């Protein structure tokens, strides 16, 4: 079954007064490379989610985004008392060095308002995740992965049709090339004979015929045509039978390329060589598409 490595899935869930959004994006890649772009998850859950993603998505460059937002209308703010006291103590010391009394009401008010504007004194509540939040996020992760998988399957159906069209085109062009077989051997024989006449050579006819047969056997492409057709059938069978055929399809495409190249080197005919170029063009498109197959 052909499944694309490219996909996108998104899911949202609400837990308490916060909404969590999980987005999963996947592009083609040789292995399963996962990037979890969130600081919300504890380390043990990070490992658990990576194992889940590896098991279900198998391969690809996978980016996971986890974000949260408050749905109660206002963000909880928190004052760090230790940091506040430390800043206030430092500012009071500066005031005393300038002969200012930090204990006067108006001066204490100024110092307090100044401290509240200093870095990290007032911050949003970290809202650490509890078990209920983690369970909700895990459910959203599963839904996002399911959505991405459905996306991959849909894209895979388009990929499969395109790949099959390319394979069928190669077989069709190969049949066109066979039409030149009837004229190819006589043309080669005539060319060799004409060249010998130009050189005014008078070879032994029996020996010439033996050498001619040996030479023409070396240019025979029947084995290459048979193997190329076998590779094309194997390519189609693998697409339909294998669960994750991407790597194997790449290897089969390489074998198809070897047979096409040998056909080109042996053809010794302009018409056949044009067919070989067209088959190579189709094969390159196959190789490009196979890179996206899971």
Automatic annotation (TrEMBL):
Q: Does the keyword Transmembrane helix apply?
A: no
Which cofactors is this protein said to need? a divalent metal cation
Which segments constitute the Endoribonuclease YicC-like N-terminal domain? 3-160
Outline the extent of the Endoribonuclease YicC-like C-terminal domain.
180-293
Q: Which UniProt keywords apply?
A: Endonuclease, Hydrolase, Nuclease
Q: Which GO terms describe its molecular function?
A: hydrolase activity; RNA endonuclease activity
Q: Which InterPro entries match?
A: YicC-like_C, YicC-like_N, YicC/YloC-like
**Pfam families xrefs:** YicC-like_C, YicC-like_N
User: What family is this protein classified in?
Assistant: Belongs to the YicC/YloC family.
Put simply, this protein is called YicC family protein
- Supply the source organism for this entry: Candidatus Coprenecus stercoravium
């Amino acid at each position: 079954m052909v499944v694309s490595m490219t996909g996108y899935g998104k899911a949202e869930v609400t837990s308490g007064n916060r909404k969590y959004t999980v987005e999963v994006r996947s592009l083609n890649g040789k292995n399963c490379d996962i990037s979890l772009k969130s600081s919300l998850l504890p380390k043990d859950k990070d490992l658990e989610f990576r194992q889940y993603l590896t098991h279900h998505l198998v391969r690809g460059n996978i980016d996971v985004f986890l974000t949260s937002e408050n749905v109660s209308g206002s963000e909880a703010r928190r004052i760090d008392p230790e940091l506040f006291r430390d800043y206030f103590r430092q500012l009071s010391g500066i005031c005393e060095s300038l002969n200012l009394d930090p204990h006067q009401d108006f001066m204490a008010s100024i110092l307090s308002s100044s401290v509240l504007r200093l870095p990290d004194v007032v911050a949003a509540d970290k809202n650490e995740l509890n078990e209920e939040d983690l369970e909700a996020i895990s459910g959203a992760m599963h839904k996002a992965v399911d959505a991405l998988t459905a996306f991959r399957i849909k894209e895979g159906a388009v990929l499969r049709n395109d790949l099959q069209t390319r394979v069928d085109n190669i077989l069709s062009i190969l049949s066109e090339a066979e039409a030149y077989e009837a004229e190819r051997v006589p043309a080669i024989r005539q060319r060799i004979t004409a060249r010998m006449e130009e050189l005014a050579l008078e070879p032994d006819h029996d020996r010439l015929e033996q050498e001619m047969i040996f030479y023409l056997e070396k240019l025979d492409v029947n084995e290459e045509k048979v193997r190329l057709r076998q590779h094309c059938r194997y390519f189609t069978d693998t697409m339909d039978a294998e669960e994750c055929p991407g790597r194997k399809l790449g290897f089969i495409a390489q074998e198809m390329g070897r047979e096409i190249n040998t056909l080109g080197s042996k053809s010794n005919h302009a018409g056949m060589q044009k067919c070989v170029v067209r088959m190579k063009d189709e094969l390159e498109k196959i190789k490009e598409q196979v890179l996206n197959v899971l």
